[in-house]
Amino acid sequence: MLQSNPVETSVSPPADQPRRVLVVDDSRAQRRILCLSLQRWGYHVTEAASGEEALEKCQAEQFDVVISDWVMPGMTGLDFCKAFRAMPHESYVYFILVTSKSEKGEVADGLDGGADDFLTKPVSADELHARLRAGERILGMQRELVEKNRLIGSTLGELQKLYDSLDRDLIEARKLQQTLVRERYRDFGRGSASILLKPSGHVGGDLVGFFEINARRIAIFSVDVSGHGVASAMMTARLAGLLSGGSPEQNIAMTVGAYGQRDAWPPEMVAVRLNRMMLDDMQVDQYFTMAYAEIDLETGRVQLVQAGHPHPLVMRRDGSIEMIGEGGMPIGLLPDIRFDRIETRLFPGDRLFLVSDGVTECPTPDHQELGVDGLIAILKENDHLDSQALLESLVWNLNAHAGGGDFPDDVSGVLFDYRG
């Protein structure tokens, strides 16, 4: 029985609507006492005389708080609590069991059955207030959590839309970036160039290519822009225009000779011009590494510059492989850097390979990099293949080295065959 107090403190229901409370007790008198007090405090109260009736009402109406007697004929309050918890609910419902039981084992049974709190008979008004305030705090936190989850869900939905839009744009950007390398193979008569380019993501920061300087000389290059993603891809697009054979007048490596014929800056000057452009004109927080080689198709003479890029490799006809270059500084980091020219010579049957660090730094699943020695071993194993087949075999070997997963960095290179 509810014990009255001289002063009753109010438990405030939500401002928008009163809390809905279900009172379950086989005693009509006990129900009425509880209901009158709850109604005075502003709650919307529904009564049920048994656990079975209470379940029917719960199927038809949503409640915020349930106050149920434990000992009732037929379905006990604990059985009703278990059945109630098994039902689907729009939101959490605070469940209070009213009981004369005080043994720890029985209280544990009530908690295991889904009860949140207990009231001991005779019910004290102060204690009921305290239990309801505790329930209000929990229901308030639950309501706040639901609202935050709703906002998170809505935000995630908007982010998913943005991601899908960006993903579609990146797919189109990759198609456009692939057009930057219009030719994957070209026969120059006394030699041929083959290209390997596999971005690690939608868009990449590697650029490889070749262009004709004049009837006798060609240039090949391999570039790796720092970072990944859209910014790197935009930089490669800019560099592709600056090293394009289709627009010699815009090619930063090209110049005009004394009699108006097409000519080219020496490789080290090409690096200097690119470095000045990066620092003075573009002024971006990016840099790139590069290997750039000019090849004389008649004599096999090679002049090249290595700017922070992996060492170029000369694959001799007899199966030996030479690593050339001293490393050098990347382009776009510091002003007034000196870039050194490196010279070598190709003989009929030799090949020159410019390759990105996505190949030499390709890791195994336990993070062991392939390295230059690993690359040389793969090249020697496949040196009987023509260049296009060799590059394809290199990709297969890298895939096996990486354990069949995606490459963490762009994989690229240009392989030049000299026939003489």
Task: Explain what this protein looks like in three dimensions.
With 420 residues, the chain is an alpha+beta fold. The chain has two domains: 20-148, 3-Layer(aba) Sandwich (Rossmann fold), CATH 3.40.50.2300; 179-418, PPM-type phosphatase domain (Phosphatase 2c, domain 1). Helices cover 37% and strands 23% of the residues. It contains ten helices and 18 strands. The protein has helices at residues 28-40, 51-60, 77-85, 104-112, 125-178, 230-242, 267-282, 357-360, 371-381, 387-401; strands at residues 20-24, 44-48, 65-69, 94-99, 117-120, 185-187, 191-198, 206-212, 217-225, 254-256, 262-264, 288-296, 301-307, 313-315, 321-323, 342-345, 351-355, 411-418. The chain has a six-stranded antiparallel beta sheet. Helix 2 packs parallel to helix 3 (77-85). The protein is rod-shaped, with a radius of gyration of 39 Å. The modification 4-aspartylphosphate is found at residue 69. Keywords: Hydrolase, Phosphoprotein.
Helix/strand/pairing category: alpha+beta
Which CATH top level class of the largest domain fits?
A: Alpha Beta
- Report the sheet with the most strands, covering strand number, pairing sense and barrel closure: 6 strands, antiparallel
Radius of gyration: 39 Å
Strand content: 15-25%
**Strand arrangement in the largest pleated sheet:** 6-7-18-17-14-15
Shape: rod-shaped
Q: What is the number of beta strands?
A: 18
State the separation between the terminal residues, measured CA to CA: 109 Å
CATH-level-2 architecture of the largest domain? 4-Layer Sandwich
What is the count of distinct domains? Answer: 2
Low-confidence stretches: 4-15
Residue-averaged pLDDT? 86
The fold-level CATH name of the largest domain is: Phosphatase 2c, domain 1
Count of DSSP H/I helices = 10
